[in-house]
Design a protein that fits this description.
CATH architecture: Clam
Helix content: under 10%
Order of helices and strands: EHEEEEEEEEEHEEEEEE
Distance between the termini: 27 Å
Largest sheet: 16 strands, mixed
Shape: globular
CATH class: Mainly Beta
Radius of gyration: 18 Å
């Protein structure tokens, strides 16, 4: 899926500041109920259909994601993720994350923010506690956190847990673009993952300004060049 660029790839610091000047750190939140359907492709080949749902009341949130494989990938079964928690001034604070997949043990993580402790619930009842990073998100809340605190000119660091471990990365605003998807064309804020080394994988996220900066496209390019593209086919708000 191609996107139509409305700004150059490389922006000076002053130009980038001007581009994002109209994007406040504490932007208006998305609608109370948002449902986004995506097509997921691997090197252009459809591999799954994904439906994500966000519900919030301004104080708490709940996210769910259901993925069904296509073609040969359907043999791998379905996957379901859920995330729930509270909404703070600086974004989402997950309380519980769960990942269920056909043929695998469910993965669950709980987060105690006052005690700054996260607990990972693994296979055969194994429990492990770890320090809870101040910028922690889970695999589902990660992209939606940008909807509740839209980045400004400075890069944003984030720690992400999949219920098994934690990774850290940093994202920067690359400008605004018109991004075309099967769900329509969106005026989007584009984020790019900062690479620590030239060979690192790349990640780009397009957030729809019209819909409260929810993700309408996510593109990941792995170290070996494999392209995983998640593109919106439908956006429903209530």
């Amino acid at each position: 899926m191609r996107s139509k660029r409305s700004f150059p790839n490389s922006l000076s610091a002053s130009a980038l500041a001007a581009v994002v000047a109209c994007v406040p750190y504490a932007s208006a939140a998305p609608a109370h109920r948002v449902e986004i359907a995506y097509d997921l492709t691997r090197n252009g080949t459809p591999i799954a259909e994904l439906v994500e749902r966000l519900e919030h009341d301004g104080k708490t949130y709940r996210l769910s994601a259901q993925m069904k494989g296509k073609g040969l990938f359907a043999l791998r079964g379905d996957a379901t993720r859920t995330s729930r928690g509270s909404i703070a001034a600086d974004g989402l604070r997950p309380a519980e994350f769960e990942d269920k997949r056909t043929g695998r043990d469910a993965v669950r993580a709980t987060f105690d923010w006052p005690a700054k402790v996260m607990t990972l619930h693994g296979k055969d009842g194994a429990v492990e506690t770890r320090p809870l990073p101040a910028d922690l998100q889970d695999r589902l809340s990660f992209a939606y956190n940008f909807s509740f605190r839209v980045p400004g000119p400075a890069p944003v660091g984030v720690s992400v847990t999949d219920g098994k471990g934690t990774s850290t990365s940093s994202y920067k605003v690359a400008g605004r673009e018109k991004v075309g998807t099967p769900a329509g064309e969106f005026d989007a804020l584009k984020l790019e993952r900062e690479k620590k080394a030239p060979e690192d994988r790349t990640s780009e996220i397009w957030l729809s300004a019209k819909h409260g900066y929810v993700p309408v496209r996510v593109l990941v390019v792995e170290k070996d060049g494999t392209r995983i593209d998640q593109v919106a086919t439908r956006v429903t708000v209530q």
